[in-house]
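Hey all, quick one. A colleague (J.T.) asked me to put the tetrahydrodeoxyuridine job into the tracker so the inputs and the structure tokens live in one place instead of scattered across chat threads. No bug as far as I know, just bookkeeping. Sequence used:
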Amino acid sequence: MDFTELYETAVGMRFFAYTPYYDFRVGAALLAENESGEKRVFTGCNVQNSAFGANICAEHTAGAKAVSEGYRVFRAVAVAGGMGDEISEMVLPCGVCRQFLSEFAAEGMKVILLKDGSPAVFTLDEIFPRPFAL
Ligand code: THU
């Protein structure tokens, strides 16, 4: 799957976003690899909660799905978000998600975001240069 398809998959995942409190719908598609070198795409959406702090972001959902199935090497993630049916430019992973992704990021992990009307490829390093690491 190329990066454009990964981005389109993220767009499609906005359909499942659970956003009764604030209709900012986010979809994510994560390309991950397991110990046998098998690659798979895991998808996610944001899942809000009436206790706002219990919100789960789309990237976090996709990442937890991947790790829970043994796919611990993250190669690329596409994120698409916006209010209602609109898709906004440059919806970047939040700080918590950047830290979460950095735990499993392969060297040079890509982040695909909408920029100037098309999916554009960034690296996690570029948007999160100094992660916390124990
Ligand atoms: N959100 C994500 O799913 N991913 C991000 O990286 C940023 C924000 C969600 C959280 C919340 O449900 C909504 O977007 C806006 O607050």
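Adding what we noticed when we looked at it: Strands lie at 24-34, 39-45, 71-83, 105-115, 118-123. The pocket of tetrahydrodeoxyuridine is lined by residues 22, 24, 26, 46, 48, 55, 57-59, 93-94, 97 (CB under 6 Å).
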